[in-house]
Structure formats: structure tokens, C-alpha cells
């Protein structure tokens, strides 16, 4: 996408055409053409710059080239695009020259600009930006004369060539580093700050020579050419691999592209009275606002703060002291070497602090600010709603309600449901953490606890994670290329970089535990080791991170469950207040049930009884039943068809033994199942519990490997050949479409009877129990009717025996397309429907869940499906099936209770869809219950 050269002026015809659409919007004091409502067109950065200037804040003026221009860039190509916007750009440049009193590309007072990316959705660091554009030998000369500060000017030029060379010309970073190091080495310097003006001049000369050698052409000196190339590069960066990956991971879609902001430069690197920094109006990790959070560097430019090259200083005295304490820096050293902005530049600090309050009130949300101080004058360079951890999101939203800045509904909309996941996951168990061997302490960049094996690069992280390993990605510092590895890692550890470093920002966005800036650690990529003092750890060794304190431990540390009180409880209470749809859970054990109830589940939407058969002794009983089930069935059929007395007698004697085993096994299972249900009903304390009858094919309960079969033969005291025969006979070519679901209950009615008896007896034993019996895999109403007869019969028997009256609903899963399209017939027999969206997706799309992995990734990446249909309900297809079934079902029974119990029940998009269709509830795994509650509230509020 990068341009080789765009020299020629636009053809006049194309320029004339440009008159129709407006592609360039100016911003600056009293001159902003855009505002905050124009994010889609101007990007978040552009819209907010215009807005801030409109608020009277000190914003260097500039102009924004719209996202529509970016879309055009991809549509008509680079050349035509520049032709299209050229007149407007020249116009805006003139205005900018006037506003600043400077001239672009020439002296005596040269105008330098930054060319900054900025899409409607914030994608920090993913796209490109170039600073100090407009420098060339002439303007350098003019600026030196004007400022009398050659070091600053040469430093700016060096930075410009490096950034432009990398971003626009594609020269690799290390090639610049190499030249810089050569000069430093020759002079015997260790720090960049030691470089004098003439050294920097030398660096510039080397850079230009190197670029020429690598690219085969001179580094461009014409300012207008630089600008054109810069704009192209920023547009091009919209589709660089890391930006694409970022959008994919964050589900950012439907945007036109990035805008380009061309803004007059202000210089934080012009001396000791200049600085640059980033700040948050509240702590992005915790949401606290005890003080003003942020970092700055004196005599530095833009990226220096986040690049982790020098140690940034804190904004406030309070923050600075806390920072020093965590790193064992004495107060004297702190004051001398790392003073806060509050101490170093008190007047500017006061001004910035006032702006912080103003911006937060204006946007009614936590802001992430960029600022630069040029020779004692403060400039605001960016504000945006800051990225934050889930804990911070919840704390900030609830605090803003308490501070009366936002209302409750807004607070509910402010928290991303899927983010809540972060809050539900374990933290380190105090005792285990206290005992663990602490290696060092870094910055608590993103909270949570992580334990994993050390890896040193993203590729290994991805490889190992794929193999099921838990990894901690350890880097000197991360860069956007590492995003894939960061995504799969349990945690991220960096040796360099502050709280606003790339690693910190990205990890917080992902909700991933991260410890950054561990200055004591030495990470060697070559040796694949981490060393700290005497300790050396290698790739594959275990390490543990506490992202909330910054502590790094050797080995594994135990984790424990998080607390669900405070702001979390408040946001969930608000969600429940505005939510109209129920949320249940999928759980099979009393323990999971209790957990889900703690997370706010209003009942069980899916209890898979087969999970109860796998544990300990039960599987033995269940297997005994399976071993004879088919024999019993066949002999009974023969017997029923047989009229000959002698033959009957022989059949009966043949049946006796297997039938005994069959009945005995079921008799053993009954009390076990009953006990399970009693436990569940008790844990539910009167909440409803949908119990699904046996669903999976029987072969799943038998060992498929020789060793397992031999062991089973030993336990059952039968010949292993017999086991093999049974396994073989149960083998199915297509088990998901085979002998499973209600088909089992129809073949082996005693199993249904046993299960129903267990449920009913448990219901009779637990006061307030509310079971609902659900028949799986129904495709034809007759299947449901047959099972229902059986259920009702058994229920009546229990009622009689126990002298109770049971109120048990009988319903079905809708997971077979045939059931969906005959849902009117089925509804006549059913008290409720529960959509089994996993099977329904499998059968509607004809995607085998076990095999679709081979192609689904490609299907999604090529846009055949928007999302993996097993994670996010395919609304257009499977959703249509659901809608049809709903409509048919409720046409017969207007009050038919409807829910969903597939994995989709915890996916916020699917939850919104179910709400729209009028579902009574969604059901999901315990850890997703809070997500579903919040998503349901948001769906209700959006309506
Ligand atoms: P990103 O999206 O990666 O943050 P930005 O466009 O915000 O990229 O710019 C990168 C850095 O350069 C930021 O620290 C920003 O404050 C700084 N910067 C951008 N434009 C200017 C300017 N006109 N003057 C001074 N610093 C600037
Ligand atoms: Mg920025
Ligand atoms: Mg199913």
C-alpha cells in the first residue's frame, strides 16, 4: 500500500469533482468545523480535538482528513485520492499557517506538523503516526536560527527521519538503532540524552545515507511530498496486519477507515522547561480516583513516555510517593531525580488538573489524556474515553452515579458485559502467595493473577497455548506485533515500560493480567532466560504474576475465588433493576448450582443428567445396564412376537439373567440420581430446575481404548471380548444423528422411568423444589407424546406412593430443525420450549461441531459467517429457525415459556437477540451468568 512517490499535482478534472464532498475539516481555537458528534467521519481523535478546541482548551490547530477519504483511498487508489483532496488540503494548510504564524516547508518560522491516525473506535498504537513533518535541511537551518537551540532541532529531525523512514518508507527500526548506537558507541555514551547537537547532526547524516542505501532514493525533503506520503501511509496503516488483528479481537466492524489528523507540532523536547505526558482522570486499573494518574517526561517527545526508553515520572506528589515506595526509591532520590509534575511545574500542573476535571465532566466518563508542555506552555493533544479493566469500568460507572455525573441506566450501559468475565476469575490465594518466592516487583499494569510457563515470543506463546499449555509471555517490552501471543497468554511480563506502555494498555483492554516495567529483570531472547540477581529461569519454567500488585513469583501460586461485593454488586443490582428477561444457568452438580446462584442465576435452565452418570461407582452401574440393554430389548421384542409356548419358555429363561442385571443396575442408579437431585433442589432454594433426560449416545459411557476395556472387564467380571463386542455394536458412523436423545428413552423406557422417578421423589423430599422435565432431541411431536405418557405415569405412581401432589412441567428442547418447523404441533404437548442452540446450529447449518473447526475459521475470516456460529448465534439462519419455532409455538400457546440453553445463552449478542424475540430466559454456564444479566439489562435499555 505504500507509495513509492506521489509527486505530480492532481489532474484538474478530478480536483474539480472534489468540490462536491467535503473531505477536510479544520480545528483550532474558535475555528473548529467538527465536533464530538462527528466521530464516525472525523475519527475519535479528530472529533475530540475539534471539540476540545471548541471548549477553549489549548489545542494546537490542525485539520482532519475524513474517514470517507480513507474509504476512497481504498476504492480509487492513492493517486486519485490525493487529486481529490488536494485543493482542500492546500486550503487547510493556508489556514493553519495563518493560525500559527508559521510557514509550511520554509523559513524563517517553519511550520512542522504531525500526521496522526485516528479511527472512530480507538485502536491505541495500532496505526501509524509521524511527528515533526516538514523538516528538511532548509527548515532545520531556519529553526536553529529562530530557537538558538540546535540540539533540539537536530533531535527533532532525527526523530522525524526515523519515524517517517519506518512508517512511510518501511525501513526497519533496528536499522536506525544501529546507526544511533554507532554514534553513541564512538562517543562512549550510554544514554540518548548525552548526545550533543553535533552528534545528532551526525546521526541525521547517517540516517539519510542509510535510507538512501536501503531504499535507493533520497529521503524526501519537499514538505508537501512528505505530507502526501505521510497521509497515504496513515491511510495504509488502517489495513496493516496488527490493525486488522486488533479489530478482529475487539470486534470492531463497519467502519470506513481511519481519519488523518494533520496538526501543528508543539515541542516537549525543546528543553528543560518542556515535557510530554499521558494521564488518566481515574486509575484505569482499579477505577480509583484518589489522585490524578499519569506519567510524564521532561524534555521528551510524544512516544517517549509509552516507549519505555526512559523511566517516566508521576503527575502528582501523592502518586509519585506511591511509585517511589513500590520501587524502594528514597524520598530524597525521588525528589531529585523523579519529581512529580506537581513539584516540577506547579503552575502547569494546576492548569492541567483543572482541564482534567473539565474534560471528565464534559464527557461524563474517565478520560485518557495526552499533553505536551512547550517552554512552560501547556497543550492538549488528545482526549478519549480511557480503556480500562473490568474492575475499573465497574468502579467508575458506579462512582459516576454516586457523583451524580451519570444516571443508573447510563452506568449499566457503560460496562461491557463480556468484560465482566475478568472479575469472576480467581485471584491468588493469600496463604499461597505469602509463601511463594517473590522474584521482583514491577508495575501492576493490569490486574488479576496468572500462573504459567515462560515463553519469550508471541509465536511460541501461540504454539504452546494451542497445545493446551498455560504460558506467561515475557518480553523486554511488547509491540503491536505481539498481540496474538498476548491474547493467548495467561499473563504478560515486561522488563521495560510504564503503566501506559503498550503491554499495559493492551493487556488491560484484553482483561489480561500484566506486570510491566520490571527493571530488575534481565530478559535474554538469545539464551531464552530471565535473570534477576542470582536467579535464572528458562523457557518452560513456571512463573506467577500478580497484576494487581506487580509481584512476580517463581513457580506456581494457588488461586482463589474473587469477591462479588462492592461496585460489582451495585452494577449487578442495577442490571437486575432494568432487566426484564430471566437468567438461568446450566449446571449439573450442587456445587456448580451454588456458584451460579451466587452469580445471580434464577434457576437452572439445563441440568444434564448424564454428567451424573460419570462419577465413581455410578459409571459401573450404568455400564452394567448398557451391557445388557440391547439384549433385553431384543429378547423382549422376540418374546412379544412369539406364540409358541415352548419357544417362549426358552426365551424367558434366556431373558432372566440379563433382565435381572438391567433392573438391578437401574435400581442402583435410582437412589444416586435422587440424591443428586435433592442436592441440586436444595442449592436452588425454590428456584426452578429444568432437568434434561438422558441425551448422549450410550457408547460415550464405554471405554473406547483397550486398556479401559480390560479394566472394565475386570470390574464387571466378564470377558473383555464381550465388552469389545458391545462397544462395537454401539458404534455409530454419525453418532450426533444417531441413537441418542429421546430415542434412548423410547428404546429403553425403564431409563426414562428411573430418571423421572428420581426427580419426582427428590421433589417430594425437598420443600419448594420446582423441577421441570425436559425431553431432548425431539423432532416429531409423537416422540414427545410417548415420553410424556411415560413421565406422567411415573409421576402419578410417585404421587400415590408418597401421598403428594407434584407440580412438574414437562417440556422439550427445540434443537432439531423438524421440531422448529412443526413447533405448533409440539407446543400442544409441551409446557415449555428450551432452544438447544448447539445442536440446532449443527443441524441447521450442517456443521458438525466435532469437525467444523477445519473450515469454520476460514468461513469467518472470509465473511461467509460474521462469527463462529457456535459462539454467537447465527441470527440470519439459525435465528430464523428459532423465530419460526417461537411464532408457531406461541400461536398455539400464547404464554408458552421459552428459553435458550445452548452455549449461546451467555453471549451478549445472542442474549439481545433472545430478548428481542420475547424469550422468558436465557441459560448459560455459571461464570457467564453475570454477563448474561448485564447483557439482558442492556438489551432492555436499548429498546
Ligand atoms: P497514537 O494513536 O499512537 O497515540 P498519536 O497520533 O496520538 O498516536 O501520536 C503519538 C504521540 O505523538 C502522542 O504522544 C501524541 O501526543 C504526540 N503528538 C501527536 N501530535 C503531536 C503534535 N502536533 N505535537 C506534539 N506531539 C504530538
Ligand atoms: Mg494518542
Ligand atoms: Mg442437544
List descriptors.
single chain, 943 residues, alpha/beta, eight-stranded mixed beta sheet, eight-stranded parallel β-barrel, 38 helices, 49% helix, disordered N terminus, binds adenosine-5'-diphosphate, binds magnesium ion
Sequence-ordered SSE layout with sheet pairings:
Blueprint: H1 12-17, E1 24-27, H2 39-54, E2 62-65, H3 67-76, H4 78-100, E3 103-104, E4 110-111, E5 113-119, E6 129-133, H5 137-147, H6 150-167, H7 173-187, H8 197-215, H9 223-237, H10 241-249, E7 258-264, E8 275-280, E9 293-298, H11 304-307, E10 313-314, H12 317-326, H13 331-337, H14 341-344, H15 346-363, E11 367-374, E12 377-385, H16 390-402, H17 408-414, H18 421-424, E13 427-428, H19 430-435, E14 437-441, E15 443-446, E16 449-455, H20 458-466, E17 471-475, H21 483-488, E18 491-494, H22 502-510, E19 513-516, E20 522-524, E21 529-532, E22 535-538, E23 542-546, E24 551-554, E25 559-560, H23 567-578, E26 582-586, H24 590-598, E27 604-608, H25 616-641, H26 645-684, E28 688-692, H27 706-716, H28 720-730, H29 742-747, H30 749-765, E29 770-775, H31 781-802, E30 809-814, H32 817-821, H33 823-829, E31 832-835, H34 837-845, H35 853-861, H36 878-892, E32 897-900, H37 908-917, E33 921-924, H38 929-942
Parallel strand pairs: 3-4, 16-17, 17-18, 18-19, 26-27, 26-33, 27-28, 28-29, 29-30, 30-31, 31-32, 32-33
Antiparallel strand pairs: 1-2, 2-7, 5-6, 5-7, 8-9, 8-11, 9-10, 11-12, 13-25, 14-24, 15-19, 16-23, 20-21, 21-22, 23-24
The structure holds adenosine-5'-diphosphate (ADP) and magnesium ion (2 copies).
Adenosine-5'-diphosphate (ADP) binds next to strand 5, strand 6, strand 7, strand 11 and strand 12.
Amino acid at each position: 500500500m505504500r507509495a513509492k512517490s506521489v509527486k505530480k499535482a492532481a489532474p484538474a478534472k478530478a480536483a474539480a469533482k472534489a468540490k462536491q464532498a467535503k473531505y477536510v475539516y479544520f480545528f483550532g481555537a474558535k475555528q473548529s468545523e467538527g465536533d464530538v458528534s462527528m466521530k464516525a467521519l472525523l475519527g475519535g481523535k479528530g472529533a475530540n480535538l475539534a471539540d476540545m478546541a471548541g471548549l477553549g482548551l489549548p489545542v494546537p490547530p490542525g485539520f482532519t482528513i475524513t474517514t470517507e477519504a480513507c474509504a476512497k483511498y481504498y476504492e480509487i487508489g492513492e493517486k486519485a485520492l490525493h487529486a481529490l483532496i488536494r485543493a482542500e488540503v492546500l486550503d487547510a494548510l493556508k489556514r493553519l499557517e495563518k493560525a500559527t504564524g508559521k510557514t509550511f516547508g520554509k523559513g524563517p518560522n517553519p511550520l512542522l506538523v504531525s500526521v496522526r491516525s485516528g479511527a472512530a473506535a480507538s485502536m491505541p498504537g495500532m496505526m501509524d503516526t509521524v511527528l515533526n513533518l516538514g523538516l528538511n535541511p532548509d527548515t532545520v537551518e531556519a529553526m536553529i536560527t529562530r530557537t538558538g537551540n540546535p540540539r533540539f532541532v537536530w533531535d527533532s529531525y532525527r526523530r522525524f527521519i526515523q519515524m517517517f523512514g519506518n512508517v512511510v518508507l518501511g525501513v526497519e527500526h533496528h536499522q536506525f538503532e544501529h546507526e544511533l548506537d554507532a554514534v553513541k558507541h564512538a562517543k562512549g555514551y550510554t544514554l540518548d540524552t548525552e548526545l550533543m547537537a553535533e552528534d545528532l547532526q551526525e546521526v541525521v547524516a547517517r540516517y539519510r545515507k542509510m535510507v538512501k542505501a536501503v531504499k535507493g532514493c533520497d529521503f524526501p525533503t519537499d514538505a508537501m511530498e512528505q505530507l502526501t506520503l505521510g497521509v497515504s501511509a496513515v491511510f495504509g496503516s488502517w489495513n496493516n496486519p496488527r490493525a486488522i488483528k486488533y479489530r478482529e479481537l475487539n470486534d470492531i466492524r463497519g467502519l470506513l477507515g481511519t481519519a488523518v489528523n494533520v496538526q501543528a507540532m508543539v515541542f516537549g523536547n525543546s528543553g528543560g522547561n518542556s515535557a510530554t505526558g499521558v494521564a488518566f482522570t481515574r486509575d484505569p486499573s482499579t477505577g480509583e480516583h484518589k489522585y490524578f494518574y499519569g506519567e510524564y517526561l521532561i524534555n521528551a517527545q510524544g512516544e517517549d513516555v509509552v516507549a519505555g526508553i526512559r523511566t517516566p515520572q508521576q503527575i502528582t506528589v501523592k502518586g509519585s510517593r506511591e511509585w517511589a515506595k513500590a520501587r524502594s526509591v528514597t524520598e530524597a532520590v525521588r525528589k531529585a531525580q523523579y519529581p512529580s509534575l506537581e513539584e516540577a511545574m506547579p503552575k502547569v500542573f494546576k492548569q492541567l488538573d483543572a482541564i482534567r476535571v473539565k474534560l471528565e465532566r464534559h464527557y461524563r466518563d474517565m478520560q485518557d489524556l495526552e499533553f505536551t508542555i512547550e517552554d512552560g506552555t501547556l497543550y492538549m493533544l488528545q482526549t478519549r474515553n480511557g480503556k480500562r479493566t473490568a474492575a475499573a469500568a465497574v468502579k467508575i460507572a458506579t462512582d459516576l452515579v454516586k457523583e451524580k455525573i451519570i444516571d443508573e441506566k447510563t452506568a449499566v450501559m457503560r460496562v461491557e458485559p463480556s468484560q465482566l468475565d475478568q472479575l469472576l476469575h480467581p485471584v491468588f490465594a493469600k496463604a499461597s502467595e505469602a509463601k511463594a518466592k517473590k522474584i521482583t516487583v514491577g508495575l501492576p499494569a493490569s490486574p488479576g493473577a496468572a500462573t504459567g510457563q515462560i515463553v519469550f515470543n508471541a509465536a511460541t506463546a501461540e504454539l504452546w497455548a494451542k497445545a493446551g499449555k498455560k504460558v506467561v509471555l515475557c518480553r523486554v517490552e511488547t509491540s503491536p506485533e505481539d498481540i496474538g501471543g498476548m491474547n493467548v497468554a495467561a499473563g504478560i511480563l515486561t522488563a521495560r515500560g510504564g503503566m501506559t506502555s503498550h503491554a499495559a494498555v493492551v493487556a488491560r483492554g484484553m482483561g489480561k493480567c500484566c506486570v510491566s516495567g520490571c527493571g530488575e529483570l534481565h530478559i535474554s531472547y538469545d539464551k531464552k532466560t530471565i535473570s534477576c540477581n542470582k536467579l535464572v529461569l528458562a523457557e518452560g519454567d513456571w512463573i506467577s504474576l500478580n497484576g494487581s500488585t506487580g509481584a512476580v513469583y517463581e513457580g506456581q501460586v494457588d488461586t482463589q475465588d474473587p469477591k462479588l461485593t462492592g461496585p460489582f454488586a451495585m452494577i449487578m443490582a442495577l442490571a437486575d433493576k432494568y432487566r426484564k428477561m430471566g437468567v438461568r444457568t446450566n449446571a449439573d452438580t450442587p456445587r456448580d448450582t451454588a456458584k451460579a446462584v451466587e452469580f445471580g442465576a434464577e434457576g437452572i435452565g439445563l441440568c444434564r443428567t448424564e454428567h451424573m452418570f460419570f462419577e465413581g461407582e455410578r459409571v459401573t452401574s450404568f455400564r452394567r445396564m448398557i451391557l445388557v440393554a440391547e439384549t433385553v430389548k431384543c429378547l423382549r421384542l422376540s418374546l412379544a412376537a412369539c406364540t409358541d409356548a415352548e419357544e417362549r419358555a426358552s426365551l424367558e429363561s434366556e431373558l432372566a439373567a440379563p433382565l435381572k442385571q438391567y433392573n438391578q443396575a437401574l435400581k442402583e442408579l435410582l437412589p444416586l440420581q435422587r440424591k443428586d437431585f435433592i442436592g441440586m433442589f436444595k442449592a436452588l432454594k425454590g428456584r426452578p430446575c429444568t432437568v434434561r433426560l438422558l441425551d448422549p449416545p450410550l457408547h460415550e459411557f464405554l471405554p473406547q481404548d483397550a486398556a479401559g476395556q480390560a479394566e472394565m472387564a475386570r470390574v464387571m467380571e466378564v470377558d473383555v471380548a464381550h465388552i469389545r463386542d458391545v462397544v462395537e455394536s454401539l458404534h455409530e458412523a454419525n453418532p450426533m444423528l444417531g441413537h441418542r436423545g429421546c430415542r434412548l428413552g423410547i428404546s429403553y423406557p425403564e431409563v426414562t422411568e428411573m430418571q423421572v422417578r428420581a426427580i419426582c421423589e427428590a421433589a417430594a423430599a425437598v420443600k419448594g423444589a420446582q423441577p421441570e422435565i425436559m425431553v431432548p432431541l425431539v423432532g416429531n411431536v409423537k416422540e414427545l407424546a410417548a415420553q410424556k405418557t411415560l413421565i406422567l405415569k411415573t409421576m402419578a405412581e410417585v404421587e400415590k406412593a408418597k401421598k403428594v401432589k407434584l407440580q412438574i412441567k414437562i417440556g422439550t428442547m427445540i434443537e432439531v430443525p423438524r421440531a422448529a418447523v412443526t413447533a405448533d404441533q409440539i407446543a400442544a404437548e409441551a409446557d415449555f420450549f428450551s432452544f438447544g442452540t448447539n445442536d440446532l446450529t449443527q443441524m441447521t447449518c450442517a456443521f458438525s461441531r466435532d469437525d467444523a473447526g477445519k473450515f469454520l475459521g476460514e468461513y469467518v475470516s472470509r465473511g461467509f459467517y460474521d462469527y463462529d456460529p457456535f459462539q454467537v448465534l447465527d441470527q440470519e439462519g439459525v435465528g430464523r429457525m428459532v423465530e419460526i419455532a417461537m411464532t408457531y409455538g406461541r400461536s398455539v400457546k400464547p404464554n408458552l415459556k421459552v428459553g435458550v440453553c445452548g452455549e449461546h445463552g451467555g453471549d451478549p449478542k445472542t442474549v439481545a437477540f433472545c430478548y428481542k424475540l420475547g424469550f422468558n430466559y436465557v441459560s448459560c454456564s455459571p461464570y457467564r451468568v453475570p454477563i448474561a444479566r448485564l447483557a439482558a439489562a442492556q438489551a432492555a435499555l436499548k429498546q
